[in-house]
Design goal:
Blueprint (H helix, E strand, L loop, with lengths): L5 H14 L12 H4 L2 H9 L3 H14 L20 H12 L4 H20 L44 E10 L5 H10 L4 E4 L14 H8 L13 E3 L8 H4 L9 H10 L8 H13 L2 E2 L7 H12 L4 E3 L2 E2 L7 H6 L19 H7 L3 E3 L2 E9 L2 E10 L5 E13 L2 H11 L9 E3 L4 E7 L14 E3 L12 E4 L5 H7 L5 H9 L4 E8 L5 E5 L5 E4 L4 H21 L3 E3 L7 E5 L2 E2 L3 H5 L12 E3 L29 E3 L14 H15 L1
Parallel strand pairs: 1-2, 1-10, 2-7, 3-21, 10-22
Antiparallel strand pairs: 4-6, 5-13, 8-9, 9-10, 11-16, 12-15, 12-18, 14-15, 16-17, 18-19, 19-20
Length: 664
């Protein structure tokens, strides 16, 4: 277990001051150590597997030894005794090192420090003193006086304070796009349903719109989930409502060519059936999916305009929101969707299927981690779990159920099944991540991209490259300071601070890759998931096609400086839509794209318990029931035969809805 000793704390403060030196002028932003909350950093590390915790401690201990000088042929002195210039040179050396462990260490420290510095805020609720220099106004919450925007908490979860046993017809593990729908459908059909959720129940102003606090509360591993080599940052919801509480509200229907691929290549004909289409329609209606939002924010408008000038087609992204008016308050609020929705506009399972479930007698138990599914004579009989009570005490929970539906997401679902003794050779395999990079650009006009719908325009020109079903989508991300600082390449403290000082003029596009080649989830000795994934040459080539396209759209939209997503920070310059150094784009494939030489991220995880008609290669039957255990079902993105190629929420919900019909 990681321990923050005084020596490690001193090293971290020196690291933070190196990544983020004080801003210019006596009244400039403070240095990194003034705003990086080491208690929250420690909590993030403590949420990782024990092996990763030990490795991080060893990294800090190395930096506190003279031998650290050998890693960059510098002075044989502890990191914190070096001059600022020397400390910066050490970090720059690690960033470009041939040794994967040094690159991994660099990025772990960089991401933690920059995110905590720019995404944090004082405990008293005041604004982060670094935000003023960025032009970032901070949270846009509903007023805390006057009529309430939302009623009191509509859901009334259980709150056991002593070890408790529950009986039910159906136990649902997870409450997001999969579990929430199954719970609502089965409760409404008259089944006695119990929902266990690992994360907390937040509502209304509980969603503070403060990045560090919300990622730490609403996301798996406190928002610091990553692959074992540290090269892919993974965002996965871990709260009541799951990913539907924290996603960007894009409600894409599954492309027909993907459904046809799943049906034919995986012997799962239900995906092209009338019944599955009905399930897609049903969940879209329940979520009030529409394209009636009043306007785009500036970076979505740039994607729309730049694509049009290049002759490329875009379309509006359907969004699952209701009650959005044309007020400035609502417009700003839509930008905070990834931190939860304080206004109650987003129609995730928190505001739809879970309410239906509760209205029909389903019981909800958040803050409860399931240790294993219980199995007797080849049949699922319930689960054993640990509930964290309001005072922090662990309470043991035993559930006896006739059927169990697991919907913990494509990372936690295979981990739970492996902890429960399932051993299908493909369980945990075929992990798809929709690996994503961000292409940021500087515009002359203010962009304020943190406000307005995070995503409302999509460019699908490059989704099926080279005659295949694989390619990229071009969309836009949330750009609040912490996430932005973590994504932007770092070459020096001054360079990164200068880029961040232009945050209110930056617009970003993301290149979302439908990955053909997958990774794997396994578990450590404590049962925690371990994630392995490396971008293949095939998927990297498609991703780079998308990077070039995104850059060209930025130029066409009027950006004057475009930052390409590589650690060497290749930078394009343009005037009035004319690119001055196009040779940089041609040189992109010749750069090294090894792990941790660029920032790669995932908000979509899929296919680790894929369903299909071939039992030898698919852990799930077409019904969603596991091949190995009767009465044990999976209903989340892990059940996808392959990745969806679009933001997967609606597809997960449709699959869960379809699965639930077979369980009624």
């Amino acid at each position: 277990m990681f321990t923050l000793t005084p020596a490690r704390a001193a090293t971290l403060r020196a690291v933070a001051d190196t990544f983020i030196p004080a801003g210019p002028g006596a009244d400039g932003p403070p240095p990194g150590s003034a705003l990086v909350d080491l208690a929250k950093l420690t909590a993030a590390i403590g949420a990782q597997p024990l092996g990763a915790q030990a490795e991080f401690g060893q990294l800090l201990d190395l930096l506190d030894q003279p031998v650290a000088g050998l890693t960059w042929w510098g002075p044989l002195r502890p990191f914190r005794t070096l001059s600022l210039t020397q400390r910066e040179q050490l970090l720059q050396s690690w960033a470009a090192s041939r040794l994967p462990l040094l690159r991994k260490g660099f990025h772990a420290l960089r991401k933690l420090c920059t995110f905590l510095y720019y995404g944090g805020s004082p405990a008293d609720g005041s604004l982060n003193p670094a935000w003023a220099a960025l032009g970032y106004p901070g949270p846009a919450l509903p007023p805390d006086s006057g009529p309430p925007v939302l009623p009191e908490r509509p859901l009334k979860p259980l709150g056991p304070t002593v070890d408790t046993t529950y009986d039910c017809d159906v136990l649902v593990i997870g409450s997001g796009a999969g579990g929430g729908v199954v719970a609502g459908e089965l409760a409404q059909a008259g089944h006695e349903v119990l929902v266990l959720e690992a994360g907390p129940y937040y509502h209304g102003r509980d969603f503070t719109q403060r990045e560090v606090d919300m990622l730490g509360s609403l996301y798996d591993s406190r928002g610091a989930l990553t692959t074992r080599d540290g090269s892919v940052g993974i965002l996965a919801g871990a709260c009541l409502g799951g990913g539907t509480t924290v996603n960007w509200a894009g409600a894409f229907r599954t492309p027909d060519y993907v459904l046809e691929e799943w049906a034919t290549e995986h012997t799962a004909p239900q995906f092209v059936s009338f019944e599955f289409a009905q399930s897609l329609d049903a969940v879209a209606q329940a979520l009030s999916v529409n394209t009636d939002y009043p306007r785009h924010n500036a970076q979505n408008q740039a994607l729309l305009d730049g694509s049009a000038r290049l002759g490329q087609t875009t379309r509006l992204i359907p969004r699952n929101e209701k009650g959005v008016d044309d007020s400035e308050a609502h417009f700003k609020a839509l930008g905070y969707s990834t931190l939860g929705d304080a206004y109650g506009l987003k129609q995730g399972t928190l505001n739809t299927y879970l309410r239906t479930a509760a209205e029909h007698g389903a019981r909800l138990l958040p803050d409860t981690r399931v240790e294993r599914v219980t199995i007797v004579a080849g049949r699922a009989t319930g689960a054993e779990a640990i509930h964290t009570a309001a005072d922090g005490r662990p309470v043991r929970i035993t559930v006896r159920a006739r059927r169990v539906v697991v919907a913990g997401g494509a990372i936690q679902t295979p981990a739970l099944l492996l902890r429960s003794g399932l051993r299908h050779p493909h369980l945990g395999q075929h992990l798809h991540l929709h690996p994503t990079v961000a292409v940021a650009a500087h515009y002359a006009q203010a962009m304020h991209s943190w406000h307005g719908p995070s995503m409302s325009v999509v460019n699908d020109t490059f989704t099926r490259l080279h005659g295949t079903n694989f390619g990229v989508k071009l969309e836009t991300p949330p750009t609040h300071p912490g996430l932005l600082a973590m994504v932007l390449p770092w070459q020096s403290g001054a360079q990164h601070r200068q880029m961040m000082s232009a945050a209110d003029h930056l617009g970003s596009f993301i290149v979302l890759t439908r990955d053909r080649d997958g990774g794997r989830v396994r578990i450590d000795k404590q049962g925690k998931p371990l994630i392995d994934y490396q971008l293949s040459a095939f998927d990297r080539s498609n991703m780079l096609t998308g990077v070039q396209a995104a850059a060209e759209i930025h130029v066409a939209a009027g950006a004057h400086t475009i930052y390409l997503p590589h650690g060497t920070l290749p930078t394009l310059h343009a005037t009035a839509g004319l690119l001055h150094n196009p040779e940089l784009l041609a040189q992109l494939p010749r750069l090294s794209w090894q792990p941790n030489r660029f920032g790669l991220y995932s908000a979509h995880q899929m296919s680790t318990c894929r369903l299909g008609g071939q039992a030898a290669t698919h852990p799930l039957r077409p019904t969603g029931e596991t091949v190995e255990v009767q009465g044990l079902y999976v209903a989340d993105g892990s059940a996808f035969p392959a990745c969806s190629g679009v933001n997967p929420m609606l597809t997960i919900m449709a699959l869960a809805h379809y699965t639930a019909q077979g369980l009624k």
